[in-house]
Amino acid sequence: MSGLEISIIPVNPEDFVPRHVPPYVEIDNELEVLEDHFEASTHEKIMPVLFEGPPGVGKTLCFAEFARRKKCPIIQADLAEDTRRSNLIGKFVPIGDKIYFSLGVLPTAIEVANAYGAAVLVLEEISACPPRIQKLLNQMLDWRFHVYVDEIGKVFRLREGARLLVGATTNPTIWGETGELNPDLRSRFYIIDFGYPPREKELEILKVYGVKDEWMAEKLVVLANETRAAAARYQISMGLSPRDLVQAARAYETYASGGMNDNEAIIAALRHAILWKYENEEDRKFVSQR
Fold this sequence. Notes:
Layout: E1 7-8, H1 30-40, E2 49-52, H2 59-70, E3 74-78, H3 85-88, E4 90-95, E5 98-103, H4 105-116, E6 118-124, H5 131-134, E7 146-149, E8 154-157, E9 163-170, H6 183-186, E10 190-193, H7 199-208, H8 214-232, H9 242-257, H10 262-273, H11 281-288
Parallel strand pairs: 1-5, 2-9, 2-10, 3-6, 6-9
Antiparallel strand pairs: 4-5, 7-8
Helix pairs in contact: 1-2, 7-8, 8-9, 9-10
């Protein structure tokens, strides 16, 4: 690229300000913990947070709720096995007869935080990244707290007075589709166990999401706890999550109000929102007998 003047495509912080965040029920004091880490993450140091827990318990939603309360942008990166360096760092892109550089998610988060004064970066399913891609995150998550973009010879740093909370989510390694974090990357995080909510909180979640039938809510929570206990004993592949219960309850109320009788609505809701999430026939048989 010698001899060419490369312009960086600017980012607009307003694009990342959350417009709508679904209701979030705090389980313990996780939002308070995020506040502490947010205030501590300055240009001089960083305190990144990793939420580790099963799917559907609200890990991502918790970060979004925090950003909503802080009224600050949130940059969310969905990581996967095919995540590339360009996704994290950036890449050259032709526009017309010119070449521009499009920032990856890491320098974008820093630029947004510097412009807005505060931001949240969430690295979703971080353990799904290949080990060599995980290595690219190290420079941003330790004392260096910067991102060096070799392609344009520029170092991105948080300015004095700005705040950037870096968070990540992952499922426990017992889930077959989950990879493992490099030990050096995992050691850079403050790790919070984000498990299933207790009964009272789960009932509150269903109520907050508009579930009016208390009998149905109670039955769903009992079913969820039975599946989680069975999954812990390796009798079935997974336990039901709060997200699954909300979907089932909503399905029941939709079908019941649409003309089905109660029994038909319950059967249809359980089949569509719960049973068929289990791919194994033995799993479905176990759940249907509960």
